[in-house]
Write a structure and sequence with these properties.
The chain has a single domain (3-164), classed as Arp2/3 complex 21 kDa subunit ARPC3 (Orthogonal Bundle). 66% of the residues lie in helices and 0% in strands. The chain contains five helices and no strands. The protein has helices spanning 3-31, 58-72, 77-96, 106-123, 131-158. Helix 1 runs parallel beside helix 2, helix 2 packs antiparallel against helix 3 (77-96) and helix 4 (106-123) packs antiparallel against helix 5 (131-158). It is globular, with a radius of gyration of 16 Å. The relative contact order is 0.15.
């Protein structure tokens, strides 16, 4: 097999595994009541949003994983679309920050904190005054999921980063 074919297969395999992990971790989070369609969400899968620090394959993997996870957890259409968009933007930002390890969690935290409250407000909660509360709760959930758990995952995976190399 040629080197370029092997590289493409490895890229697609990494993206597929990351998407599957995102879906499973989101489902587990929903199953135990940590995440849902409400204001307070703590998705374990969001810790994976640091993976673009290691591989560009994580960018489509995370976006597709989020899209599928939102479909499988019966999210509203705006949540399915804009949730995947927020994850995609966060993943692109993390990839752009890959030279600065401790900045890697920042783009997904910002993308989700700035986009998801509007999704929740317009798709689930029809109370205009709820927006500041949603920014706070979504932001806090992202700080815990990506900032804490994602950073811990990053530190562990740095010792094994060769699994991401071509």
């Amino acid at each position: 097999m040629k080197k370029t074919t092997q590289n493409r297969m490895r890229y697609l395999t990494h993206a597929g595994i990351i998407a599957a992990l995102y879906v499973v971790l989101t489902w587990v989070s929903a199953l135990v009541g940590l995440s849902g369609m409400g204001a307070v969400q703590l998705r374990l899968s969001e810790a994976l949003c640091i993976l673009p620090y290691f591989t560009p394959a994580a960018i489509p993997g995370l976006a597709i994983g989020c899209l599928l996870a939102n479909i499988f957890t019966a999210a509203a259409l705006p949540d399915i679309l804009f949730g995947a968009l927020a994850t995609l933007l966060g993943a692109l930002g993390t990839y752009a920050c890959r030279r600065w390890r401790y900045l890697a969690p920042l783009p997904p935290i910002l993308a989700n904190t700035l986009i998801i409250p509007f999704v929740i407000r317009f798709a689930y909660v029809d109370i205009a005054e709820s927006l500041p509360f949603l920014f706070l709760t979504v932001g806090l959930g992202e700080v815990i999921s990506v900032g804490v758990f994602g950073t811990l995952l990053l530190l562990v995976l740095e010792k094994h980063r060769r699994i991401f190399l071509s």
